[in-house]
Write a structure and sequence with these properties.
The chain is of the alpha+beta class and 190 residues long. It is 17% helix and 43% strand. Strands 1, 2, 3, 4, 5, 6, 7, 8, 9 and 10 form a ten-stranded mixed sheet that branches.
């Protein structure tokens, strides 16, 4: 069957949305204090999207912190060892998909509010700790947190001529093909 990209195809992106490290604003997101606010937002979104016929979302995904939704959160991992929050999203907006594929939106940035006052770091002058209460996560052109990057683009959905929808991996960078055999020979897990 011939496979073609559909206008409503989705793109799955994964990466770190926040990490306990100094960001471009000389701030550090306190992982332990922020984690419960992420957990609360995830539960609120699960409840809001627990509707027959609706796919579940765990976090709104926006572009550049605008009010336009471009996708949904699908998975979350609280990495206590690395003090970072990792998430997976489905990008559904065709313009945003193109921008991600072209490298225009390579970073994640959480948006929302700061809980309580910012606390000066005890060892580094001019650096402040904050607690985040996320309202959304955005794909942005330049994120504040250096580690908050898209780490992988797993697949996008295509519809075959017979109407069956399948997940297809992106082309391997070295050989520009999508076949399983080639990916295995090149040790490509993406």
């Amino acid at each position: 069957s011939k496979v073609e990209v559909q206008d409503d195809g989705t793109l799955r992106v994964y990466g770190i949305v926040t990490k306990e490290e100094i960001d471009r604003d000389n701030e550090i997101c306190n992982y332990e204090k922020t984690k419960p606010f992420y957990e609360k937002r995830v539960e609120e979104m699960k409840k809001a999207t627990d509707v027959e016929g609706m796919e579940q979302s765990i976090m709104p995904l926006r572009e550049m912190h605008q009010l336009k939704c471009i996708g949904k959160g699908s998975i979350i991992n609280f990495n206590d060892d690395e003090k970072q929050i990792e998430m997976g999203f489905e990008v559904v907006d065709s313009d945003a998909i193109k921008k991600v594929r072209k490298g225009c939106l390579p970073c994640f940035s959480h948006g929302g509010s700061t809980v309580g006052p910012k606390i000066p770091d005890k060892n580094i002058k001019g650096v402040y700790w904050y607690t985040a209460n996320p309202g959304e996560v955005s794909l942005v052109d330049l994120g504040s947190c250096p580690s908050a990057l898209i780490h992988s683009i797993k697949s996008f959905q295509l519809t075959k001529a017979d109407g069956v929808t399948v997940d297809v991996p992106f082309q391997h960078q070295a050989c520009q093909c999508t076949c399983t055999q080639c990916h295995e020979e090149n040790n490509c897990d993406e």
